[in-house]
Amino acid sequence: MSMKQELQKLNNRLDKCKYKLDGAKSRGDNELISRFTDEIDKITKKIAQMKHKQSYDMNKERKSLLDMPFSREITKAEQADMGKLKKSVKGLVVVHPMTKIGKELKLKVMTGYAPKPF
């Protein structure tokens, strides 16, 4: 299961536990209240760990791209034949500005990162 799906599943479980906790509080059922508060704490901690891992991975990827010695904007003609461009340049990484990493890098245009000029 992907990290995104796992995070969504945990958030759904957290909402369900909060809903059940409200019901237990209205009934005054102390046993269920303590069980659901423990469950909520456990799920919240796991969600925080997963979000931290996501941000760590994103920063790691961002740093690896910024460490590449060469980057430049991809022209419209190159975008039209991306396969040819990727075959001609070894190690080319193309980043679109609408992806997570593109937003993280604050890109305005499609940019290519490579170990040597292209």
Structure at a glance:
The protein is mainly alpha-helical. The chain has helices at 3-27, 30-66, 76-80, 82-88, 100-104; strands spanning 70-73, 93-95, 111-114.
Architecture blueprint of SSEs:
Elements: H1 3-27, H2 30-66, E1 70-73, H3 76-80, H4 82-88, E2 93-95, H5 100-104, E3 111-114
Antiparallel strand pairs: 1-3, 2-3
Describe the structure.
Residues 7-53 form a coiled coil. It is a single chain. The protein is mainly alpha-helical and 118 residues long. The chain folds into two domains: 1-67; 69-118, Uncharacterised protein PF10928, DUF2810 (Ribosomal Protein S8, Chain: A, domain 1, 2-Layer Sandwich). It is built from five helices and three strands. It has helices at residues 3-27, 30-66, 76-80, 82-88, 100-104, and strands at 70-73, 93-95, 111-114. A three-stranded antiparallel sheet has the order 1-3-2, with no helix packed on it. The relative contact order is 0.12.
